[in-house]
Amino acid sequence: MDYYAVIGHPIGHSKSPRIHALFAEQTGQALRYEAVLAPLDGFAGTVRDLVARGYRGFNVTVPFKGEAFVLADELTDRARRAGAVNTLKVEDDGRLLGENTDGVGLVTDLTRNLGIRLRDREVLVLGAGGAVRGVLAPLLAEGPAGLHIANRTGSRAEELARDFADLGPVTGGDLDSLRGRHSHLLINGTSAGLDDEVPPLPDDLLRPGVDCYDMMYGDRPTAFLRWAVAHGAARTADGLGMLVEQAAESFALWRGIRPRTAPVIRVLRPVQP
Ligand code: ATR
């Protein structure tokens, strides 16, 4: 039996143990996966302790993705670009490989599960924090015609755009830079939804046919998705599929086998009244 864990603070509401238990059952892999609360000043110590006890890998969530990046002995290109690690694999020699599966999870959910094409499309991303930095490289790898990052603090979006300019046609600006700008897909990567808020967006931002995706999810439609529906979005989706897809990528890195995600997404999706 191999042991894995998701480490965060807080961690009580994490869906990851359920997701990985379903993956293990489906693929017949003998593993246990649990949620571990690390003290805010004790992430590295928690990891070292679990490695010493034989754990083979970890998912890392808020607020430790930056510390996991520093702790990893080796990084994948994606993790290096993201500046954050959400998956650690304990190699046979005990070294820690740091990977970031968030962006691939988002792209897989968009393209495979939702059938949303990114190639040659105009993509708008809201927010310029760690969550957005983590997904830009995989989004740009899909070959969009343009990717514009708009953020409350415009300078952060401009800086992100500069950091990723070698990977594709990416620009950045403040929320005013959205005026008159149209896209095929609008992705919310801000944390405004934690306060049930939406960044102030132009009323005519969505032309007919625009799909809206929220990287956050909840048991009811997020504030951003309620805004999207009220402003005529073609389709809306929350980040539950992204969560399950990033988990599947982690599982594949650890176990060498990729579970099917659709049945797991179905099980986790809350029943709408
Ligand atoms: P995360 O790891 O979730 O990305 P973060 O790095 O703190 O967290 O970034 C949060 C993002 O959400 C930022 O882009 C932030 O905008 P600022 O850079 O201007 O702070 C954005 N954000 C949070 N609350 C918001 C709100 N109420 N309206 C608009 N943007 C908001």
Give your account of this protein's structure.
- This protein is of the alpha/beta class.
- It folds into two domains: 2-100 and 241-268, 3-Layer(aba) Sandwich (Rossmann fold); 103-238, 3-Layer(aba) Sandwich (Rossmann fold).
- It is built from ten helices and twelve strands.
- The protein has helices at 16-27, 43-52, 65-71, 77-82, 102-113, 130-141, 154-164, 223-230, 240-255, 262-268; strands at residues 2-8, 31-37, 57-60, 74-75, 87-90, 96-99, 122-126, 146-150, 170-173, 185-188, 211-214, 236-237.
- It has a six-stranded mixed β-sheet, sandwiched between helices. It has a six-stranded parallel β-sheet with strand order 9-8-7-10-11-12.
- The mean pLDDT is 97.
- It binds 2'-monophosphoadenosine-5'-diphosphate.
